[in-house]
Amino acid sequence: MLKSFLFMLLLSSSVVFSMECQQREIQIQGFAKVLPPELGDVHETICRFQIDFSKPIRFSVSQVCPLDLDPIRDVQFIDNDCEMKQGAEVSGVIVEKNGFYFFE
Q1: CB atoms within 10 A of CB 72
Q2: What is the band of 19 on the pLDDT scale with cuts at 50, 70, 90?
Q3: Which terminus of the chain has fewer CB atoms gathered within 10 Å of its CB, N or C?
Q4: Does the predicted TM-score (pTM) go above 0.85?
Q5: 78 to each of 35, 38, 47, 61, 67, how far by Cα in Å?
Q6: CB crowding 1-36: b at 16 or more within 10 Å, else e
Q7: What is the extent of the structural domain holding 69?
């Protein structure tokens, strides 16, 4: 009985760990580094920001599908409302899906 239980436990855990992550995530709290606005293809203003890694940040990596800090150091996130202020505190989840990064 114990052998069959251990076998089922091993089998179920291998199924969970073999599943490929559809999106990787990291929860982060830090400060914004606002980039100069740019003019888009249809003459709309595009505003972007980055996480300012020169200032202290707090983060929590997903236990299921972790996203490391290194790939997001140079990522630019869209500020749809163009209201982000330099040095403003930002808090949310950064999601990587199919090579694209989103700040939610």
Answers
A1: 19
A2: low
A3: N
A4: no
A5: 10, 11, 6, 22, 19
A6: eeeeeeeeeeeeeeeeeeeeeeebbbebebbbbbbe
A7: 21-103
pLDDT per residue over 32-80, tens digit each?
999 999 998 888 899 999 999 999 999 999 999 999 999 999 999 999 9
Q: Under a CB-based contact definition with an 8 Å cutoff, are residues 50 and 75 in contact?
A: yes
Q: Is residue 42 part of a domain?
A: yes
Tell me how many domains the chain contains. 1
Distance CA 95, CA 102 (A): 5
Give the separation between CA 67 and CA 28, rounded to whole angstroms: 11
Give the separation between CA 101 and CA 98, rounded to whole angstroms: 9
92 in a domain, yes or no? yes
